[in-house]
Amino acid sequence: MKHTLVSATALAAFVSFAPVVSANGAAKDADKKKAPQAPAAIDDEYRVGPGDKLRIEVYKDPQLSQSVQVRPDGKITLPLVGDMEATGRTPIELRDTIAKSLKDYINNPTVTVIVVEALASQIFVMGEVTHPGTMQLHGPTTILQALAMAGGFKEFANTKDVKVLRPNGSGIETIKFNYKDVINGDAKPFYLRSGDTVIVP
Length: 201
Known about the structure:
Elements: E1 4-6, H1 11-14, H2 25-33, H3 38-42, E2 53-58, E3 66-69, E4 75-78, E5 82-85, H4 91-102, E6 111-117, E7 121-127, E8 133-137, H5 143-149, E9 162-168, E10 171-177, H6 179-183, E11 197-200
Parallel strand pairs: 7-11
Antiparallel strand pairs: 1-6, 2-3, 2-6, 4-5, 7-8, 9-10, 9-11
């Protein structure tokens, strides 16, 4: 079982802000043209989903520290804070939101969010891999790990043009993935979500 641990003391070393806000209009226009590639940068961290079990630690406050499970409506309930949206947020984002909400009650709260257990997710891998088909993911899983579970690439697979089809509210989003960039350290880990389809041409 993989744990995702985010502590306030590790923030400087751990956080990498993928989205960049441009200072001029021309740069913003360029960003819009590149919009289809944006999700690959944004989704480089695991995002909490319904059913995930979390451990919320508030430093030196055992009464506020809680083990919670994300409800089907995507929310969790915490003392003092009440109901809070958790689904779709990274552990860092959730930690910061909780800390901000607790500032009305605690001076400079230090919060840690741990993904103790992630609900099994179903993804699909197809194309030029050894064992294409459906996979059950039981925790935060990168596309590299999923490809390894699929037996790796076949001889003539185009590893530079792997695609992830991701359902969203308005249809299907296509995210490009270059295996060689990740292996060479030129790209960040890419975490899959339940319902993703990985296509290897």
